[in-house]
Amino acid sequence: xxxxxxxxxxxxxxxxxxxxxxxxxxxxxxxxxxxxxxxxxxxxxxxxxxxxxxxxxxxxxxxxxxxxxxxxxxxxxxxxxxxxxxxxxxxxxxxxxxxxxxxxxxxxxxxxxxxxxxxxxxxxxxxxxxxxxxxxxxxxxxxxxxxxxxxxxxxxxxxxxxxxxxxxxxxxxxxxxxxxxxxxxxxxxxxxxxx
Amino acid sequence: xxxxxxxxxxxxxxxxxxxxxxxxxxxxxxxxxxxxxxxxxxxxxxxxxxxxxxxxxxxxxxxxxxxxxxxxxxxxxxxxxxxxxxxxxxxxxxxxxxxxxxxxxxxxxxxxxxxxxxxxxxxxxxxxxxxxxxxxxxxxxxxxxxxxxxxxxxxxxxxxxxxxxxxxxxxxxxxxxxxxxxxxxxxxxxxxxxxxxxxxxxxx
Lengths: 195, 204
Hints:
Distance between the termini of chain A: 130 Å
Strand content of chain A: 15-25%
Structural class of chain A: alpha+beta
Order of helices and strands of chain A: HHHHEEEEEEEE
Number of strands of chain A: 8
Number of helices of chain A: 4
Largest sheet of chain A: 5 strands, antiparallel
Structural class of chain B: mainly alpha
Number of helices of chain B: 11
Oligomer: heterodimer
């Protein structure tokens, strides 16, 4: 009985060990089929967001919670403080804070004789060349004389008068600065600290 | 909005001051000019050059109605002058010194003469001598005369207060009708003579 069964079993085993004949294009066809399958573009994201069951010991929970509390108490304010310190110098350089380092200035009187003018303003590097700046609007004093007294920071400045919002007039009483950039001459002023 | 979106927005809000630009530029320049000017200003900031003169120059151009290209060229030229000034004065120069030096270069002083003034000034700040030099040139003193006058005064060791007085006197002389060059050299000679007599003062 045993010998009778052994022969077919050996035959079957031999059959199974024989290599299966596969055509040369088989690999290529399989890979084509695989590539044709729809791709899962967010596989990684799905793996991250798919719900999973996590078991954790109460002691581990306690350690994790304590770490978070310590981080919140010390780490976050430090991190934001460092970020604030890192950004402050650039912002301060751009927009100097008058409260921190007040820029010394002197009140300077600007005078222009312009009998036909309807409006006269002083513009310069001390007011951002803004002809609408309220503090630098000249008033008509009579007889075509316009004047305004306004603060100007100490130092060397360039300025001009703007008549009727359109005509640029250099101060006839001040030295002129040849402006090669925009073609309109400016006047120069040096403001010194009064002793 | 997703959590990621909210986090990015919060990060942008927190980080915004680090990239802040002068709001006056955005209000007065067209977009292409604004982008170009901001790029020049950012480069100057990275190079640790003063940026306020660049912003002022752009605002001046906008106020004068210049076209964007002219504004960008003017701001760029000024940034080059600031860089040149810093190069001549050295890395230790203060912002005020760099601004004064750029003003002197703009008035026509050569980098070589700027270096001579720096050497004559020694370790003292060069801000005041350069401000006086620029003022002299703007008042009509020939550049060569103004430069040699300031160098002579600095070599004589005059103080900033004396320089300011000298500047006021020259200004007054010119206003009274004196030739600018003659006024500057005459006043400088007087100041140098007084400086030379200074050691005798304590004995008086």
